[in-house]
């Protein structure tokens, strides 16, 4: 553990130049006294590190000194796939591992490439969740990630839609972060299924490993599952008229399904700018709330039952505000 920290001190000084003991302590999450001992150990080992005294002082390496002791561990190499998602890496328990991997990778670069990489990180930032949403904080996530890594069979207590709890024995195959929400792809009773991690209430490691299917492709599975989920979610079709503003709102309110329907609409807007088209909607009362969001910018033509329900709700709203 200490050897790894000493290497981190060395790489930090190599990458960033002069750093104070307080800065090193904050970066490594140790005490300032520990930093003093680590710097002394590096000096005793022959590393040319020296201290500048005073308010603007700090530790730095002799100009031109570089180390090539930058080998990545297996965990660090694996964590680099999450380099653009530091919050997600932290949720998976890989935050410090990712930081160490990035530090070693940075140190191994020639100075001109290192400067370019720093410029990119200074000027571009990836923020995954949508507005008004954050990445879920999930106490079971790191345990799930460990089960995925180790191909270990688990038993979970899962809350299904409708508040019904079930128990399942799962073979976890992968984790997916979608718009701030985590999902688990797992094999259950010979079928591949998807579980929302926030609904997993209890988790037990059964102490058994399983053979991961050689033909399972997580990206392909998620793409196909997402398409089927959207089809199930938007299983009805309404014939609607939309003005230009409503057409702008469709991708925001109905996502990729609505945007695709808009692109595939066969008709053209009329002389007043209204477009008649088929729009996928959710079944039941969900469609009423979804379409009311468009206000007067959308009119439902068919089916008659949906049009009547919207007219009823709009009438209630008019009476309430009138």
Automatic annotation (TrEMBL):
SUPFAM superfamilies: Winged helix' DNA-binding domain. InterPro entries: CBASS_pafABC_assoc_protein, DeoR_HTH, HTH_11, PafC-like, WCX_dom, WH-like_DNA-bd_sf, WH_DNA-bd_sf, WYL_dom. It holds the Pfam family HTH_11. Residues 2-57 form the HTH deoR-type domain. Keywords: Transcription, Transcription regulation. The keyword Transcription regulation applies. The keyword Signal does not apply. One of its GO terms (molecular function) is DNA-binding transcription factor activity. It comes from the Bacteria. This is Transcriptional regulator. It comes from Amycolatopsis regifaucium.
């Amino acid at each position: 553990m200490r050897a790894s920290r000493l290497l981190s001190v060395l790489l930090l000084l190599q990458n960033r130049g002069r750093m104070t003991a307080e800065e090193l302590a904050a970066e490594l999450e140790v005490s300032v006294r520990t930093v003093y001992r680590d710097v002394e150990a590096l000096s005793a080992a022959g590393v040319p590190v020296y201290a500048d005294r005073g308010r603007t002082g700090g530790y730095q390496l002799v100009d031109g000194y570089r180390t090539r002791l930058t080998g990545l561990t297996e965990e660090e190499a694996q964590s680099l796939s999450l380099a653009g998602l530091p919050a997600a890496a932290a949720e998976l328990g890989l935050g410090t591992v990712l930081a160490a991997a990035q530090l070693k990778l940075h140190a191994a670069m020639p100075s001109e490439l290192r400067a370019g990489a720093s410029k990119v990180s200074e000027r571009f930032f990836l923020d995954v969740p949508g507005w008004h949403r954050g990445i879920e904080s999930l106490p079971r996530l790191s345990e799930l990630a460990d089960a995925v890594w180790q191909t270990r069979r688990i038993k979970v207590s899962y809350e299904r839609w409708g508040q019904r709890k079930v128990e399942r024995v799962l073979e976890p195959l992968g984790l997916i972060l979608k718009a701030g929400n985590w999902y688990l792809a797992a094999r259950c009773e010979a079928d591949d299924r998807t579980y929302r991690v926030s609904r997993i209430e209890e988790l037990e490691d059964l102490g058994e490993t399983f053979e991961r299917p050689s033909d399972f492709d997580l990206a392909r599975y998620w793409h196909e599952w997402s398409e089927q989920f959207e089809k199930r979610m938007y299983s009805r079709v309404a014939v609607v008229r939309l003005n230009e503003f409503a057409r702008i709102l469709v991708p925001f309110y109905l996502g990729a399904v609505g945007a695709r329907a808009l692109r595939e609409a066969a008709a053209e807007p009329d002389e007043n700018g209204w477009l008649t088209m088929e729009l996928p909607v959710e079944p039941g009362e969900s469609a009423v709330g979804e379409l009311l969001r468009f206000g007067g910018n959308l009119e439902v033509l068919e089916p008659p039952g949906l049009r009547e329900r919207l007219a009823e709700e709009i009438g209630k709203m008019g009476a309430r505000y009138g």
